[in-house]
Design goal:
Number of strands: 10
Oligomer: single chain
Distance between the termini: 72 Å
Radius of gyration: 27 Å
Structural class: alpha+beta
Keywords: Membrane, Transmembrane, Transmembrane helix
Protein name: DUF4352 domain-containing protein
Length: 201
């Protein structure tokens, strides 16, 4: 028997068992620490605290963010059932990313056909202070509503299309008959998305 080899193997096994025991003992502490961090710093918690002004105060709101993007003709629905899930980044500033999320033929019961355009807002909330862009207005009573404006629509030749649907949401419904003669893509221009700035109170 090689005593030297036996002793080394035994030492390694003891070290391994000690490391495993330490890891086992630390796991509950790590899980608890992670839960505390999530409760204090998670995006959903910070968002809720900002909108309710719990530990935060809103320093300004400005309906000043303009958004201008084009939908290629290949992604304009031509018939019922057409759905294009694009998730295309069209804005990345003020700690906010905005995506052209979906363009689809929308056919609700007992209603006219529409082309449905959905935007997705993906803000990053900072723990100390920061800003984000939203389609909402935060009221003094901590309720909120939508910004109110009418987006403009343009054909590729620059002509303004006579579409009057909208109202300032992150979703737009365009009557299909308005796009029946469209040859090419479609440009949407929004004005008045809300730039919100906040800081810890």
């Amino acid at each position: 028997m090689n005593i030297r080899s036996y002793s080394l193997d035994r030492i390694m096994n003891v070290k391994g068992l000690a490391a495993l025991l330490i890891a086992f003992m630390l796991t509950p502490l790590i899980i608890t620490f992670h839960a505390v961090l999530q409760q204090r710093y998670s995006q959903s918690v910070i968002e809720d605290h900002i909108f309710s002004e719990k530990g935060y105060r809103i320093t300004s709101q400005q309906q000043s963010v303009k958004l201008d993007f084009r939908i290629d003709s290949a992604y304009i629905p031509k018939k019922q059932g057409d759905v294009f899930r694009l998730h295309k980044l069209i804005y990345s500033r003020n700690h906010t990313k905005i995506y052209l999320e979906t363009v689809a033929w929308y056919n609700p019961p007992q209603n006219s056909d529409n082309i449905y355009v959905e935007l997705k807002f993906d803000p990053t909330y900072l723990y100390g202070k920061g800003s984000f862009v939203t389609s909402a207005i935060i009221n003094n009573d901590h309720s909120f509503g939508n910004v109110m404006f009418m987006p403009d629509y343009y054909a590729d030749d620059g002509s303004v299309l006579p579409i009057n649907d909208g109202g300032g949401r992150s979703e737009v419904f365009i009557p299909v008959e308005q796009l029946a003669e469209l040859d090419g893509g479609l440009t949407l221009k929004f004005e008045g998305f809300n730039l919100v700035k906040y800081e810890r109170a």
